[in-house]
C-alpha cells in the first residue's frame, strides 16, 4: 500500500465566502452614499464655492414730492410751479428727465408723495397726473403728522 504524498501547497480551490463579504461591504457603502445624495437633493444644499451673481443688484432712486398746506409743490425741497398751476409743466418735465435718467442707469425710480393734512385734495390729484404724464409708476404716499 502506497501512502499518498502531501505537498506543502495544497490546492484548496476558489473561496467564495470572502468574495461575498467584500461585495456586501461595497454594496452597503454605495447604498449609504446614495441615501446621502438623495437627502442633499431634497434639501437643495450646495457646497461652498465660487459665487456668481445671477442678476445685478437693483438700486432704488427715491425722489420726494411734498405738497404744502397752501398747495405749494416741492421736489426734493425745490419749489416747482405756482400753487395755482394745474398742469404743473416744470414738475412734469423734471420728473420725465428723472425717469429717463433712472431708466438709462437701469435703476428703479420711486417717488414718495408727502401731503400736508390740510393741503387741497385736488393738488394731490395734480401731482398724480404729473407723475402719470412723466411715466412714473412706483409711487408711495405718506401724510405729515402733528409732531408736537
List keywords for this structure.
single chain; alpha/beta; Nucleotidyltransferase, domain 5
Structure write-up:
The chain has 148 residues and is an alpha/beta fold. The chain has a domain of 84 residues: Nucleotidyltransferase, domain 5 (2-Layer Sandwich), CATH 3.30.420.270. 39% of the residues lie in helices and 18% in strands. It has three helices and five strands, in the order αβββαβαβ. A five-stranded mixed β-sheet has the order 3-2-1-4-5, with helices on one face. A hairpin with a 2-residue loop joins strand 2 and strand 3. Helix 2 packs across helix 3. The chain is rod-shaped, with a radius of gyration of 39 Å. The relative contact order is 0.13. The mean pLDDT is 80.
Condensed summary:
This protein is of the alpha/beta class and 148 residues long. Helix content is 39%, strand content 18%. The protein has a domain at 60-143: Nucleotidyltransferase, domain 5.
Amino acid at each position: 500500500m502506497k501512502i499518498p504524498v502531501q505537498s506543502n501547497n495544497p490546492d484548496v480551490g476558489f473561496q467564495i465566502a470572502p468574495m461575498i463579504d467584500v461585495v456586501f461591504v461595497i454594496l452597503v457603502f454605495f447604498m449609504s452614499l446614495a441615501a446621502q445624495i438623495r437627502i442633499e437633493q431634497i434639501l437643495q444644499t450646495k457646497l461652498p464655492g465660487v459665487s456668481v451673481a445671477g442678476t445685478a443688484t437693483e438700486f432704488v432712486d427715491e425722489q420726494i414730492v411734498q405738497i404744502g398746506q397752501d398747495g405749494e409743490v416741492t421736489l426734493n425741497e425745490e419749489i416747482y410751479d405756482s400753487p395755482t398751476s394745474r398742469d404743473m409743466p416744470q414738475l412734469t418735465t423734471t420728473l420725465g428727465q428723472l425717469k429717463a435718467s433712472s431708466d438709462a442707469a437701469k435703476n428703479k425710480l420711486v417717488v414718495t408723495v408727502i401731503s400736508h393734512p390740510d393741503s387741497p385734495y385736488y393738488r394731490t390729484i395734480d401731482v398724480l397726473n404729473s407723475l402719470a404724464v412723466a411715466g412714473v409708476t412706483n409711487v408711495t404716499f405718506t401724510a405729515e403728522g402733528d409732531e408736537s
